[in-house]
Amino acid sequence: MIFASSxxxxxAIIILTKxxxxxxxxxxxxxxxxxxxxxxxxxxxxxxKEYLVTQxxxxxxxxxxxxxxxxxxxxxHYIGPYFMLLYGLSYANIVKKNKKxxxxxxxxxxxxxxxxxxxxSNYLKTPNExxxxxxxxxxxxxxxxxxxxxxxxxSYLKEKSYSVKKYxxxxxxxxxxxxxxxxxxxxxxxxxxxxxxxxxxPIVFFVQFIGFIYFAYKYGIFGVRLKFHKxxxxxxxxxxxxxxxxxxxxxxxxxxxxNKAFTKNFLTEDRKYNGFNDIxxxxxxxxxxxxxxKLIDExxxxxxxxxxxVAIGNESDKKYFEAQTNPIIIKKEYFGIVILxxxxxxxxxxxxxxxxxxxxLIEKERLLSLNQLIGGIAHNLKTPLMGSxxxxxxxxxxxxxxxxxxxxxxxxxxxxxxxxxxxxDWQNRISEYLIYMSDVITTVKGQVKxxxxxxxxxxxxxxxxxxxxLFMSYEFKKYKCTLVEKIDIxxxxxxxxxxxxxxQVLNILLTNAIEASEKNEERIxxxxxxxxxxxxxxxxKNSGQEIPTKVQKNxxxxxxxxxxNKGTGLGLYISKSIIKGRFNGKISFETNDKETTxxxxxxxx
Length: 605
Prior knowledge:
The protein is an alpha+beta fold. The chain is built from 17 helices and twelve strands. The strands form three sheets. It has a five-stranded antiparallel β-sheet with strand order 2-1-5-4-3, sandwiched between helices. A five-stranded mixed β-sheet has the order 7-9-10-12-11. It has a two-stranded antiparallel ribbon with strand order 6-8. A hairpin with a 4-residue loop joins strand 11 and strand 12. Helix 3 runs parallel beside helix 6. The radius of gyration is 46 Å and the shape is rod-shaped.
């Protein structure tokens, strides 16, 4: 009996240590503890008293031992059946509402027994007194115990999941016979005067203890999974060691595990939480509750990992998390879900910083391009301005002569007509010069806009080609290059996006082509446009040398240049960003030892 009592206490400790959060596991630990207490009461009446006799103990000591034994026996008999019933109810998940009230009501018979029956050892009672005592106890104890056994078997029968059913069968095969034996040996049979059946309990316990150890090691039982490994204890609370926030839920969204990171990042109250709704309502994630529920449902239905981004806190102290749901699927059966909250606040801030830096790089390259074009603009505007000044002088001179002829009433109509024709001719020239200067100023003005302020718009091919030639005319004259146009598309074709952004990219490609052709005698640059399926293809071709292989691999990925100190390495890197970001297009190239061609593919509207 001593070994049986010690074994029951040991099982209670193991169960609580392994799974102290589950309600049914707590009840099972209480049952084992009370059973061990009742067994130890029998030890006090037997081996302990025999030992005291050999030691010559006093009568007072015997009375104290008898009283302690009776108290332990009464506690085991009055409270044990109560926990057996509660274990069955909790295990089968029968009570879902008003749980505390129902548990209190079910405890009333135990309280009545403590009040009604005096604490007196069963060994001091007569057979009739003992028989009556157990008849009264059997009225409620036997139904409680058998009810607990019934609910355990019922839980197994109603279970639909094959995997869970296997574990519940193991549980039922150990617990239900134990409950039935307790009801028969400790109450029903003793109420009929059969008082020695409990003495076979050590044999029953030995079989059940071996069964508990075996099944706990092999499969897991009562929330216990024994693994006799040198370092396995280090992995029992591995979820607590995860730096990201983790929330583990079962199939009914009851909480299985919450790690310290989740508590630190989200919870506002330090208390016990039962379900998903309970913990989210008391956390900083309450505004994201509906999105999280939707995410869990999608992950469960599709049996796949789902991810959303959630934010908590105010604007001045906002934190961002990536919520990832991982369904727990075993043999195609859904058992629950793991929600992982990864802190991406630093990533978001770095991304914003990267975007800001990218805009600054684009602005820098754009300003460098404008700096190169300032000389061309000055040259382009100087000629029409000088021509306009000369034309104004001629108009002034001819106007004066006409005025003098009119005053003299000269009738030389042919001479007057000649002067007037010259005036009109210079008037037309000046108008053309002014229109040209206006176009140049408008084009430059569009390029001076900050990159972030460029509006999404629509424009025609004709408009784009005109601005390209207007903007690059000085560069072609300066480097003595010839621009060949191959426009194999309707000039009225419309492109969606900012004309100034595409103009900047084409200027970069044309400038690169001019510089690549600088060492060749035949300096011909081709600007072409054609349509392919649902895309418009722009291309810039030059007769320069082949792009080195090392440069080809990273030409759009890194800020590299083949121009030495004259280049920034930003041009093609930024061009790709503009084409992809503003036009949803692609930029690519082909190169060999004779020519190099860059292609821009832009989807049609």
